[in-house]
UniProtKB/TrEMBL annotation:
Its main location: cytoplasm. This is Phosphoenolpyruvate-protein phosphotransferase. GO terms for biological process: phosphoenolpyruvate-dependent sugar phosphotransferase system. SUPFAM superfamilies: Enzyme I of the PEP:sugar phosphotransferase system HPr-binding (sub)domain, Phosphoenolpyruvate/pyruvate domain, Phosphohistidine domain.
Amino acid sequence: MTTADTDAATPSPDAPHASASPTVSPTAARTEAHSGGSDGAGGSGGAAAPTGAQTETRQGIGVSPGTAFGPVVQVAPPVRPPKNEPAVDDADAALADVKAAFETVAVSLEQRATLVEDTAQQILKATALIARDKGLVKAAGKELAAGHGRATSIDRAVETYAAQFESLGGYFAERVADLRDVGSRAVAAVLGVPAPGVPVFTEPSIIVAEDLAPAETATLDRSRVVGIITEAGGRTSHTAILAAQMGIPAVVQLAGATSIPAGVPVAIDGDSGEVTIAPDMALVTAQRERASRRASALAELSGAGRTSDGHAVALLANIGGVEDAVAAGAQDLEGVGLFRTEFVFLSATKAPTVDEQAEIYRGVFAPFEGRRVVVRTLDAGADKPLKFADLGPEENPALGRRGLRLSAERPDLLDSQLEALAVAARDTGADVRVMAPMVATAEEAAWFARRVRENGLPKAGVMIEVPGAALRSRDVLTEVDFGSLGTNDLAQYTMAADRMQGALSDLLDPWQPAVLDVVAAACAGAATVDRPMGVCGESAGDPLLALVLVGLGVTSLSMAPSKVPVVRLALSLHTLADCQKLAEAARASRTAVDALTAVRDAAISELTDLI
């Protein structure tokens, strides 16, 4: 079994948790985790470090808020083909075995998809499509014909595809971890050995891996997995997105994570990205006390977001589907700032009909009757390929015909989506606002706004993720009703750094003063024409950066729902003038580190003491 055994009884938080696997030290008897939401969760007590473990603090990237403490469970590494695997005697029979192995993987992923919520379900279905890609089987067949064994042929075929995906960047690069996970599982299937993944364990623990594929992250047992650490990944990886939605503290890009011995207790901070190996219990106690104070502070606040002097800042959720919407709709937030509609299309082999789309959209809008739901139209194209909307290969798909540029060439797809959105909006009474991705010019904004209004939707907006659109936001936003900053892509394009390249994570830090300058320019243009400007990138969920964004002129912040409470707290402790001073300090800094330090030092200590 490759995931936590969800059928086993959950251990009592008041009793020592015996290990059911040699990967968990029996001495690490207890664990505690505190979510980033309004209440903490977990047991009590402390885990003793195994003899010889040295206390050490390492810095990663915090991607899901909250703190956790517990023993390490190392995820089983990918299954590799045996060295010098002999060639096959019957290539046709071997190819049939390879095809069957990929199909086994696809079926397994689809079975997992039935057990999880909507966003994770769509990700798993999309990953199953990778396993059913005929090109992978064909590539493996060529390797078999070249004299390689079954497992080696699968591995070589997958690595050939992985190299192509990485060179293409964008959506393709984001799928490399998924592709390699599919390949490893197929290798395991053809060899008849257990698939890679999370081992069986019984006590609440912290999962550590090189990277977690969606198949692993989406099906983690939340009663046992109290924290996640990965050596790879990024702020917008599937691990980051799913962990935040599941309320599990997570840190990515932690150097040497996979070398931490299994069973060693670690303390992690999903806000700061700090991981302490074999921590002194005084540190753990301080972490718990801080989490308790934080939970109390968050519990005292509710309602609309606003600064201490009453300046309104709408606090919204990023969602990917119906289950996300149902969960977010029950929470204390003002609506949805980003509904990623591409999840409706990812696992489709043909374009969904208007009726099929409308049914999904009604399910998303219904929990938000009377509240806003900002919908991003299909964000697809050359770097997010869809079988029914293939415009052909491009040398640089990240800068190619994606987002609105695809819609311009396939307006039928856009019009059917807008028609379905209009039907669902009328049926549910939600305040539906529609925005287009990858808008670069005022002409593009005008074209989109016209089609939105022709389809009976009253409010049209644009994503500001292209620096050109940010610098000329006055002209772009004149054509529409609102703008929303996609800070993930805006940072990528401003710094000329692929956001999926872990080695470039410093350049992609949203605290980069150059990125803040571009955000400031976009907000200044919006203010000139009296248009609201939101943020729906991951930076909106950082409580300190949220203050800076408000100081730059941002009027709404959209994030994973679990991050809303601490951002609400940050706003409530600062005036608008405070936020503006913090923004000035950040932009005056030389480096991203300097900007963060300046803001942390100047922010109200009541906040910084809790994060």
